[in-house]
Amino acid sequence: MSEYNIKIENVVASTKLAEEFDLIKIEAEFEGAEYNKQKFPGLVYRVTDPKAAFLVFTSGKVVCTGAKNVADVHIVIGNMAKKLNGIGMETIVDPEITVQNIVASADLHATLNLNAIAIGLGLENIEYEPEQFPGLVYRIADPKVVVLIFSSGKLVVTGGKSPQHCEQGVEVVRQQLDNMGLL
Fold first, then answer.
1. Hey, what's the signal peptide range on this chain (predicted)?
2. Within 10 Å of residue 145's Cβ, how many Cβ atoms?
3. Which of 12, 56, 49, 19 is nearest to 34 (CA)?
């Protein structure tokens, strides 16, 4: 699969770290944390190593975004829990972390004729309106991912729940384009 340079660009995951959080206290204690209830109901907090951002809610729920792999998600959420414990906020010991979405990019190293692909793939799972958006939107049922196909041969896969889903999505596109003689 590496021949297509599949690269995870973003992992979005969620978890519940506590029964509730005092966001005003977290904002006061965590340097760089931003909380403005009028603008958004959650606190925004960014970390750099590994790089990620958190949305923290009073419900105790946390959304982590911006990580480049699933392992980093587990690391930054663990670090976040330790930091919260460090300011006297008890967190759930082994929280269940759910990957909500993985966005990956790939390159088929070919110039693609999107009009031919749109006709070849059929209209039921694709959207292609070049006046609106330069890519073809292809919804795959298994794995359940959406692949944006560009004439440059570049792909963006979104909606995957695992890196394997993203890889399978690229493979489905590659096989179908190959079968139609468009690759």
1. none
2. 25
3. 56
- Take residue 18 and report the two structure tokens written for it: 């506590």
Sequence letter at residue 155? L
Q: 32-62 pLDDT, tens per residue?
A: 999 999 999 999 999 999 999 999 999 999 9
Q: Distance between CA 124 and CA 64 in Å, rounded? A: 33
pLDDT tens digits along 85-119: 999 999 999 999 999 999 999 999 999 999 999 99
Helix or strand holding residue 78 (H, E):
helix 70-86
75 membership: H or E segment, kind and range: helix 70-86
For the chain, state the CA radius of gyration.
20
Percentage of the chain exceeding pLDDT 70: 99
Angle formed at CA 101 by CA 98 and CA 104, multiple of 5 degrees: 135
